[in-house]
């Protein structure tokens, strides 16, 4: 179990973590997966719906946008009432929504902003329009305190091909960190799951430290929503730990166990979800 920080009165303060992302009706990715991961890790999960998909374990059959004004109203309404300790940003879909989210985060300034630059689904379907990439890079990325791209997403953000070695990943992590803001703690969590071989080394970099987070590929096809789950886990854990690398290690360990136990679930006939509640049932 994850410890929850005590308040000055000695009672435990459960963090409130907000997901701003799309909806996957099958529950393996998007806000539904985010709230599951946040809940499993000791945070109160809440969500703003930024995009709609018709999706299952085999693919995305349709995407429907949410009005940017309504996305903005959701964010304002939540922040006006709830103490939000961390925000996870996932699928936004379109440029106008991306710009509204950036505007509202600048207004409310949450302490932790985990940006998962969702661009392509596990099935290969595109989830971010091409003209939205620039808005994400220029308006949202500077507000992120944690950036969690996989190797193809990092290539898009840097306008270069995806890398294939740990040595190249180090250079990419450094370049990504340089396009983030310089004030406060800002981290890149570069995911190495697309590397060839059985090792899944991730890199954690803050502009000074370059920390390797080792891992092993787990033999299962049920990995739908792994990126969503990791970034949601970080949003849940960062308010609970002063040490960012420790929160990152715990988030990665939680995801590894969720993947390891994924085959216990029987959800769909394609790429099934991870088991967010593996520690309970």
What does this molecule look like?
The protein is α/β, with parallel strands linked by helices. Helices cover 36% and strands 17% of the residues. It contains eight helices and nine strands. It has a nine-stranded mixed sheet with strand order 3-2-1-4-5-6-7-8-9, sandwiched between helices. Helix 3 (95-108) links the parallel strand 4 and strand 5 (112-115). Helix 5 (151-158) crosses helix 6 (166-178). The protein is globular. The mean pLDDT is 91.
- Identify the strand order in the major beta sheet: 3-2-1-4-5-6-7-8-9
- Number-wise, the strands total 9
Instruction: Report the total helices.
Output: 8
Q: What fraction, in percent, of the residue positions are helical? A: 25-40%
Tell me the Rg in angstroms: 17 Å
Low-confidence stretches: none
Helix/strand order: EHEEHEHEHEHHEEEHH
Q: Kindly report how far apart the N and C termini lie.
A: 14 Å
Based on secondary structure, the structural category is: alpha/beta
Q: Helices and strands in order, then pairings?
A:
Elements: E1 16-23, H1 30-40, E2 44-55, E3 60-65, H2 68-81, E4 86-89, H3 95-108, E5 112-115, H4 130-140, E6 146-147, H5 151-158, H6 166-178, E7 187-190, E8 202-205, E9 210-213, H7 226-237, H8 244-260
Parallel strand pairs: 1-2, 1-4, 4-5, 5-6, 6-7
Antiparallel strand pairs: 2-3, 7-8, 8-9
Helix pairs in contact: 1-7, 2-3, 3-4, 5-6, 7-8
Descriptive tags:
9 strands, alpha/beta, nine-stranded mixed beta sheet, 8 helices, 281 residues
Give the structure's gist in a few sentences.
The chain is α/β, with parallel strands linked by helices and 281 residues long. The protein contains eight helices and nine strands. It has a nine-stranded mixed beta sheet with strand order 3-2-1-4-5-6-7-8-9, with helices on both faces.
């Amino acid at each position: 179990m994850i410890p929850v920080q005590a308040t000055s009165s000695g009672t435990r303060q459960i963090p409130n973590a907000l997901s701003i992302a799309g909806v996957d009706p099958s529950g393996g990715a998007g806000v539904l997966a985010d709230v599951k991961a946040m809940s499993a890790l000791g945070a109160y999960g809440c969500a703003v719906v930024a995009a709609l998909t018709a999706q299952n374990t085999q693919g995305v059959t349709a995407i429907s946008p949410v009005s940017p004004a309504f996305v903005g109203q959701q964010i304002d309404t939540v922040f006006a009432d709830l103490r939000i300790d961390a925000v996870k940003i996932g699928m936004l879909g379109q440029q106008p929504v991306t710009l509204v989210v950036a505007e509202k985060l600048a207004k409310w300034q949450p302490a932790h902003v985990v940006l998962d630059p969702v661009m392509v689904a596990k099935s290969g379907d595109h989830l971010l329009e091409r003209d939205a990439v620039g808005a994400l890079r220029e308006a949202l990325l500077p507000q992120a305190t944690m950036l969690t791209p996989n190797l193809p997403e990092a290539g898009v953000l840097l306008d270069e091909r995806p890398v294939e070695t740990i040595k190249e990943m180090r250079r990419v992590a450094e370049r990504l960190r340089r396009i983030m803001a310089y004030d406060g703690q800002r981290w890149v969590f570069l995911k190495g799951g697309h590397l060839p071989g059985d090792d899944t080394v991730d890199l954690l970099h803050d502009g000074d430290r370059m920390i390797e987070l080792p891992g092993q590929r787990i033999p299962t096809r049920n990995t739908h929503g792994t990126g969503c789950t990791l970034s949601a886990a970080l949003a849940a854990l960062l308010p609970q730990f002063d040490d960012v690398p420790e929160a990152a290690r715990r988030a990665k360990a939680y995801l590894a166990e969720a993947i390891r136990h994924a085959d216990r679930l029987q959800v769909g006939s394609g790429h099934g979800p991870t088991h967010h509640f593996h520690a309970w049932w």
